Amino acid sequence: MSDNEGRTDLRMPDDDEVFAVVTEMLGANRVAVRCMDGTNRTARIPGKMQKRIWIREDDVVLVDPWDWQDEKADITWRYEKQQADQLREEGHIQE
């Protein structure tokens, strides 16, 4: 277990979810994100996350792109800084 020291099992994206990095705070519960599929999207912070989870620029999040409007998405999960560093080390996130 020495090579996995400090590694935790992280929540991975479901079928339609994508890793993204927050690039800009837009206000009105919206953020600009750069998704790992190469698309820049406007993501919504859902009501259940607004008061409990603070989202800042450069945070790594999971987004669920909208079926009917590909340039928009909903944020479903935010990773802590340590978890985000682990995702980068494992190659899930390209800067």
Automatic annotation (TrEMBL):
Protein name: Translation initiation factor 1A
InterPro entries hit by this protein: NA-bd_OB-fold, RNA-binding_domain_S1_IF1, TIF_eIF-1A, TIF_eIF-1A_CS
NCBIfam families in alphabetical order: eIF-1A, PRK04012.1-1, PRK04012.1-2, PRK04012.1-3, PRK04012.1-5
Residues of the S1-like domain: 6-80
Pfam families: eIF-1a
Protein family membership: Belongs to the eIF-1A family.
Gene3D superfamilies assigned: Nucleic acid-binding proteins
Coiled-coil segments: none
Domain of life: Archaea
Keyword Protein biosynthesis: yes
Keyword Transcription carried by entry: no
PROSITE patterns: IF1A, S1_IF1_TYPE
Biological source species: Halosimplex pelagicum
Record lineage: Archaea, Methanobacteriati, Methanobacteriota, Stenosarchaea group, Halobacteria
Known function: Seems to be required for maximal rate of protein biosynthesis. Enhances ribosome dissociation into subunits and stabilizes the binding of the initiator Met-tRNA(I) to 40 S ribosomal subunits.
